[in-house]
Design brief:
Elements lengths: L4 E4 L3 H11 L5 E5 L12 E2 L3 H8 L2 H6 L3 E3 L1 E5 L5 E5 L8 E3 L2 H14 L3 E4 L3 E7 L2 E7 L2 E4 L2 E4 L6 H6 L10 E9 L7 E7 L2 E7 L5 E8 H6 L4 H7 L5 H6 L4 E2 L4 E5 L3 E2 L8 E3 L5 E2 L7 H18 L6 H30 L2 H13 L1 H10 L10
Parallel strand pairs: 1-2, 1-12, 2-8, 5-14, 12-20
Antiparallel strand pairs: 3-7, 4-7, 5-6, 9-10, 10-11, 13-16, 13-17, 13-18, 14-15, 15-16, 19-21
This protein binds flavin-adenine dinucleotide.
Length: 382
Amino acid sequence: MTFDVIIAGAGPAGSSAAIHLARKGVRVLLVEQKKFPRPKLCGEFISPECQRHFQNLGVVQAMTAAGPTALVETVFYSSRGHHVTIPSSWFGGPAALGLSRAVMDEVLLRRAQECGVTILEGASVSEPIREQNDVLGVRVREQEYRAPLTIDATGRARILTRKLNDDARGSRAKLIAFKVHLRNTRVAPHACEIYFYPEGYGGLSTIEGEVSNLCFIISAEQVKRHHSDPEIVMRELVMKNQRAAYTLAHAQPASEWLSASWERFGRQRPSPTRGLLAIGDSAAFIDPFTGSGMLMAFESGELAAHVILRHRDTPAITAVGAEYEAEYVRKFDSRLRISGLLRRAAFKPRLAGLGIAICSASERFRNRIVRATRSPGLSFKL
Ligand SMILES: Cc1cc2nc3c(=O)[nH]c(=O)nc-3n(C[C@H](O)[C@H](O)[C@H](O)COP(=O)(O)OP(=O)(O)OC[C@H]3O[C@@H](n4cnc5c(N)ncnc54)[C@H](O)[C@@H]3O)c2cc1C
């Protein structure tokens, strides 16, 4: 029951970090509460830069075999139907991919297994094992698993970090997201379409099997007012956007609705205490309209693995946490700040409309904003 590194959560952050480490001979335990494949609430827009990660992780063939849709552009629609287009090529890779999380996460988990990672599926981590300020592993049901380093990759749930701070479930949810797979939409076949409407926004694009994925965010207040029924919210609010009214007019559900709630965006501490690192959404949750949450999951998983490998022959756990935190801040803080600024417009249709008009006027400005939501070095002064 003793490992070099224990990772809680097998989303893109957890599985990719596990693959990087196991391939260098590190003994990794990966604990995942669900049995895979499983559906997951997400826009399922895999940003073009992720393909570099797929290559490094050795999963390009398996991803391609699943038949993803090539998404060559993202089109942002104001509620009145004005739009602005961002070509996928601006993200510095080929097309983005439309692929379900059920497939993508399953491919990554099986690859981790192939690389020698010990996997516990259908097993929920309940809390960290603590000794004073140190984390020494995790508890799964009655069982203890120990390692000098533990990684919280449980997504927005941040199970280990919350338990550490006795932070039960944070404050009341301010936002709710819904997702469903649909047939008979009229979304442009190779585009990811983003719709703004009062107090929220949503995305529609095609994934494998010619199915469309609709994923949208709305204030918890509005959901309550609409009887917490996603179908009613879609018809009454999302379809207030003229383009969404057209693309979703004849849509038929092809899956169950999924929902999730949360109270905040932004960064937490990447190394909350000695012996514990946080990666992916557990470290920071970036606004979904940037389409870069999975990219940040891969990037932070890779960064954590690099720092751990740099110190693998020394028992310098403190140095691992400090270095990871410093490098994390350097790499991600600028884009998190820019996304935070853009968020102010995303939930207000008039501001979103104005933003779309300004972006339509200047390709240079548009390109700079897009790159500022990704790159570490580009600070964008608004
Ligand atoms: C509405 C919405 C739309 C989005 N759309 C996009 C998009 O189109 N493109 C994009 O790139 N990003 C998108 N994102 C963001 C993206 O989904 C996340 O950034 C990404 O999933 C983060 O990966 P992760 O591995 O950190 O966490 P997750 O993918 O959340 O994985 C965490 C894993 O931990 C497991 N887990 C949780 N608790 C426990 C426990 N106690 N024990 C064991 N395992 C546990 C979960 O089952 C899960 O498998 C969207 C997010 C939202 C909310």
